[in-house]
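Two proteins follow. First one:
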Amino acid sequence: MTVPERPTARAHREVASVLREGDVAIDATAGNGHDTVFLAGLVGPTGKVIAFDVQEQAIASTRERLAAEGLLERVELVHASHAAMHAYAGPASVTAAMFNLGYLPGGDHELITRTEETLQGLEAAVGVLKPGGLLTIVCYPGHAGGDDESAAVVAWAEKHGAEVFRREDTLKPAPFLVVVRATEA
């Protein structure tokens, strides 16, 4: 029996198909640094990752993980909301942006991404993506605030021609992936 692909694994696969050495990428929700390390590996020593998180604990965890991998010099860590990414990346300068919504694993589950701020961050991401760039959003329904945020993200994404990848093999609301591809110029 084939095990269905996890949304985070699919997001990595999608991003790896477009992101190259020397590119600029954004981790909109640094969390524990897994996506940041992944992106830093892809952009190589000549590229740059800008990683955002509103929690100092997440920034510290990401910094530690990057340092352990020898990738810290490739990343700008920003202790701020992803809604401010346009202040850190110019229009059409980013090849890939990743959002992993919900709460910080191992952190306070009361501190979650908020729908309004997420939608502002998604708009900012679309504004900084270059033609042919990619935006991935892993949504987590099933926790307080997660159902509403997930529904709002899907509604927003439908206006941008997004693809939604859901697992149908689960009984409870499962995480799912939304992919937005920036149109070629």
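Second one, unrelated to the first:
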Amino acid sequence: MDKIALILVIIGALNWGLIGLFGFDLVATIFGGQSAFISRIVYSLVGLAGLYAITLLFRERTEVK
């Protein structure tokens, strides 16, 4: 679950970077606009992954041996 959330957060960060630097929304371009149903699903999943990623800040770290 952590890896999926991290991948979605990275996708969101890259998309926001493209919007900020170039005014280009990759998700909207790929899926047919910001109001397209699939785009809204992707945006929602990225948002939920961001909320989930907050929990990673408060977890105890364990060393891998």
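SUMMARY FIELD: The chain is about 75% helix and 0% strand. The first helix runs from residue 2 to 22.
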